[in-house]
Amino acid sequence: MLIRTATFIKSASKLSECPEWDFPEFAMIGRSNVGKSSLINTLANHSKLSKTSVTPGKTKLIGYFLMNDTWYLVDLPWYGYAQTGKKNRDLWISITHDYFIEREQLKRVFVLIDGNIPPQHIDLDFIYSLDQKNIPFDIVMTKIDKATQKSLSLHTRLLKEHLTKIVTHMPNIFPVSNVTKRGKEKLLEYIEILKDWNMEA
User: Which domains does the chain have, with CATH numbers?
Assistant: First the structure.
């Protein structure tokens, strides 16, 4: 898929503020500092579309980016640690839960996992919750340029071993580097297949 246009549309603090247009949506979510904003910029071929931050857990709203005027890339609030109070954390969890359950335009959730380290319990717990609620999801392994091929292979194998114990169906796993752009085209091709299939259905 060639991304010709990528435009930030709006941020939403609750489900009712999400766009009304009936375009398919592909959401990105992960724990703090996993490289979500960088991945969005990589996919959009736009270095400053989504703002990156050194402060963990900066994303607090649902961000909508219109791609090629036909589908949305959606930036969801983190599910991991951030320097904030419990009240705000509970609010963000509520926002994403409502989005997952009630947003009919949502076609796939991409859970971002740091490929440079072994699978973390917080990621596995979140994946388990998606599977239990029958939310369609796949996995993107980020920061693979920081890992050796040996450690990346080990982390991927460990991830698959954990997944076999907690999910009903094995998700696709896409290794993507925001530095070398490795894996970018494969992920975009997958999104295009899902987008076209859902539009024809």
Answer: 6-200 (3.40.50.300)
